[in-house]
Amino acid sequence: MRKQIAAANWKMNLTITEAETLLDAVLGGTAEVSENQKVVFAVPAPYLALAAQKVAGKNNTFVAAQNIYPKKSGAFTGEISATIIKSIGVEHAVVGHSERREYFNESNQFLAEKVKMCLQENIVPIFCCGEALPVRETNQQNSFVQTQLQESLFDLSADEIQQVVIAYEPIWAIGTGKTASSDQAQEMHAHIRSQLAAKYGAEVANNVSILYGGSVKASNAKEIFGKPDVDGGLVGGASLIAEEFVAIIKALKS
Ligand code: PGA
């Protein structure tokens, strides 16, 4: 059965003291995370080891890198590999966040390499997709996201795709306070799942967690996560406030 997941994306925020305080507050405020749920903290790279130590021993709670480079090692100054994060106990990585696509020109093909490298190193990739406003305004969001999936994920085997978590994040809803309605989220999630089913069959499609991201907060999480094809959220701004993120974790389907 696919997992229900609350993933915090801290982006480039917080000092180490603030990071430690926030982690302690969220971990302290969160009761047992059940077997079919997961909590993930995507923290800035310098805090990965600390966060991994803090979540060790907490059930179903994990740490994610916000990015990896798709080589095992070598002369790539400033980058970190899946192998490196694995060696410090990190088991997840965000791949293809829209900010990376936009500011660092990451293409669907390059992201396909990152996903492959994650899987090779037993790292769960949290693969982000989603359209910008002009695409939505011209009603091309379904084909746009379909191309992202095809070019980055659909070379994977049926076994591999079931290791991937997909996060649908409409760019117009990220950090804008403008959330997609729960119906808009459900519609796209159902579309993504139908694409997975067409390629890999319904059983495989049903095993893939699809998260929604874009201005998720405590006040709207329950309604969005309540939709049948929404398996939790990737949360930016609201994940920086302990009470907000604790409430978002509680809003996951049990
Ligand atoms: P937001 O960010 O929750 O601040 O909109 C979500 C994301 O970018 O992952």
Instruction: Identify the CATH architecture.
Output: Alpha-Beta Barrel
How many runs of DSSP E, i.e. beta strands?
8
Largest sheet: 8 strands, parallel, barrel
Compute the average pLDDT. Answer: 97
At the fourth level of CATH, the homologous superfamily is Aldolase class I
Helix content: 40-55%
Distance between the termini: 12 Å
Here the CATH topology equals TIM Barrel
Q: How much of the residues is beta strand, in percent?
A: 15-25%
**Uncertain residue ranges:** none
Shape: globular
| Widest β-sheet, arrangement of strands | 1-2-3-4-5-6-7-8
Number of helices: 12
- Count of structural domains: 1
Could you spell the SSE succession in H and E letters? EHEHEHEHHEHHHEHHEHEH
| Overall radius of gyration | 17 Å
CATH class bucket: Alpha Beta
Unique ligands: 2-phosphoglycolic acid
Structural class: alpha/beta
